[in-house]
Amino acid sequence: MSAAQATQDGDGPWDEARCIAALATLEKLQDQLDELRLVVPNLVAPFTSPQDSPQAVSSDFRRTAIALQKSQQVFDRTWKSEAVQDILAHATQSVKADPDLTKGASVQRYGWIDVAEKHQRPAKSKEKRSRGKGSDAEDKFDASAIMPAVNAFKESHPNFKVDVEEGRMITIMFKVSSMVLKFQVTCNVDPGNHATFMAQAK
């Protein structure tokens, strides 16, 4: 069972794959919570950085407030999701069965999203080979999936400003305190309609 399948199968056994998927889900939740910790600094940032006019301050504050509200809504949806509630229910039952949590101290806090993705790749590779495709196909990113991926990123990071030019040039901007960071991702599509990406800081 892949980590992705384990996440979707709420009634499946709590085997290694499902535990890894659960840890990845909690890591994503932690990332969203970390973003919410910056609510106050981000909210006051428009008043602490130079602005051209009071109207610019008001506009910047309004955009920031809306983005932060969306971040809160994303966190609320994730927290109330069936996947997270299943994890919390299982954790409660597990503690009742064995209150000794000393082994949990050795479990790393981050990196489970990457581990879950690595567990998912062999399943994808096997499925594609069974359809007569080469094993290298899993490393290809179909160009038609670019915009859905961008939209999913924008939904999970509503306080980021994401602009897309002709589906090939993606600009990502976000604030860290009073500093604005900007990245540009260039999408190159080959004749087989497979995309590769190059990212650079601006």
From TrEMBL:
The domain of life is: Eukaryota
Q: Where is the composition biased (Basic residues)?
A: 121-132
Region ranges (Disordered): 118-141
The entry's protein name is: Putative mediator complex subunit med27 protein
Phylogenetic lineage: Eukaryota, Fungi, Dikarya, Ascomycota, Pezizomycotina
